[in-house]
Amino acid sequence: MLVKLLRNGVGGIFQVGDLITRPAKMKRLPEAQQQVEQDCQQLALYQLPRCPFCIKVRRAMHKLNLPIETRNVNPGSTHRDELQAGGGRVKSPCLRIEENGETRWMYESNDIIAYLQQRFG
Q1: Using CA atoms, how far apart are residues 42 and 69, in angstroms rounded to an integer?
Q2: Under 8 Å CB-to-CB from 14, ≥6 apart: which residues?
Q3: Phi and psi (nearest 5°) for 6?
Q4: Contact 109/84 with Cβ under 8 angstroms?
Q5: Which side of the chain, N or C, has fewer Cβ within a 10 Å radius?
Q6: What would the pLDDT profile of 71-107 be if each residue is shown by its tens digit?
Q7: Which residue, 101, 108, 7, is CA-closest to 60?
Q8: pTM of the model
């Protein structure tokens, strides 16, 4: 209980800090941005709003100008059940990647950011 309170308190501070210091979005030609938006439809970020690691990933998504759907995995959420069933565990952040008819689940924030930078940076 105490850990949850601390995590939510610190996460709230990080969330406000992110909103205040958010970096500028990457600029692309309209055609290139349209392709990125189409590619992002195959991605979904399973996350918690106040999780510091999730904030880190969302910040990278914002900087790279990636409109990736975010799905909250709060207890009782259907997205939490999807994450458990598909990825095998409930841990956030997790990026769901649909490619060539297959689904991959990527869990570590640094791995997710590296993947996004390599693919879209």
Answers
A1: 9
A2: 50, 52, 55
A3: -65, -45
A4: no
A5: N
A6: 999 999 999 999 999 999 999 999 999 999 999 999 9
A7: 108
A8: 0.84
Question: How far is the C-alpha of 27 from the C-alpha of 31, rounded, in Å?
Answer: 11
- Give the list of residues 6+ apart from residue 32 with CB closer than 8 angstroms, or none: none
| 79 contacts 90 by C-beta, under 8 angstroms | no
Measured in residues, the chain has a length of 121
CA-to-CA distance for 38 and 59, rounded, in angstroms?
Answer: 20
Report DSSP state, residue 24: P
What's the half-sphere exposure (Cβ side, CA atoms, 13 Å) at 20? 6
3-state class of 63 per DSSP?
helix
